[in-house]
């Protein structure tokens, strides 16, 4: 199976280790009309033992390939949502940010988009990975 066109990696910088078990959602902008934007959930996943979520695809019906279910579109906005509160609660810690939303624009649908996230209970940072 090939990897998803959008992948992520979460590291808990407060302990210097991968953040395993972080729920992740991939969303696509449906509408930006009015004061609120509306996103549709495309896929859900959970980070593995190494803090990675490499297969962010929707579930496939019988006879379908998961790889065919997500086709990125140039100029469209996408968002990756990380449920950080669930992760920190699972290791007995409190946090200030219950989730982290990273919105980005796809310039070229043939490129791979990797979204790294560095978290601690009271801060986070991200960048465009490779």
Q: Secondary structure elements and their pairing?
A:
Elements: E1 6-12, E2 17-18, E3 23-31, E4 38-46, E5 52-53, E6 77-82, H1 84-90, E7 100-105, E8 113-120, E9 123-126
Parallel strand pairs: 1-8
Antiparallel strand pairs: 1-2, 1-5, 3-4, 3-6, 6-7, 8-9
Note down, in words, how this protein is organized.
The chain has one helix spanning 84-90; strands at 6-12, 17-18, 23-31, 38-46, 52-53, 77-82, 100-105, 113-120, 123-126. It is mainly β and 130 residues long. Strands 1, 2, 5, 8 and 9 form a 5-stranded mixed β-sheet that branches. Strands 4-3-6-7 form a 4-stranded antiparallel β-sheet, covered by helices on one side. A hairpin with a 4-residue loop joins strand 1 (6-12) and strand 2 (17-18). The longest helix is centred in the C-terminal third of the chain and has 7 residues, at 84-90. The mean pLDDT is 90.
Mean pLDDT: 90
Instruction: Note the total helix count.
Output: 1
**How much beta, percentage-wise?**
35-45%
Principal-axes shape call? globular
Which consecutive residue ranges, at least 5 long each, have pLDDT under 50?
none
The helix-strand sequence is EEEEEEHEEE
Using DSSP, what is the number of strands?
Answer: 9
Radius of gyration: 15 Å
Q: Note the gap between the termini.
A: 19 Å
Largest sheet report: 5 strands, mixed
Instruction: Give helix % range.
Output: under 10%
Helix and strand content put the structural class at mainly beta
Kindly summarize this structure in a few lines.
The protein is mainly beta and 130 residues long.
């Amino acid at each position: 199976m090939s990897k998803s066109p959008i992948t992520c990696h979460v590291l808990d910088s407060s302990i210097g280790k991968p953040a395993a078990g972080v729920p992740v959602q991939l969303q696509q902008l449906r509408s930006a009309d009015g004061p609120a934007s509306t996103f549709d959930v495309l896929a859900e996943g959970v980070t593995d033992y190494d803090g990675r979520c490499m297969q962010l695809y929707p579930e496939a019906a019988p006879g379908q390939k998961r790889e065919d279910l997500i086709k990125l579109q140039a100029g469209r906005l996408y968002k990756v949502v990380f449920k950080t509160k669930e992760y920190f609660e699972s290791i007995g810690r409190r946090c200030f940010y219950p989730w982290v939303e990273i919105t980005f624009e796809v310039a070229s649908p043939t490129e791979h988009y990797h979204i790294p996230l560095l978290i601690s209970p009271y801060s986070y940072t991200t960048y465009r990975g490779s």
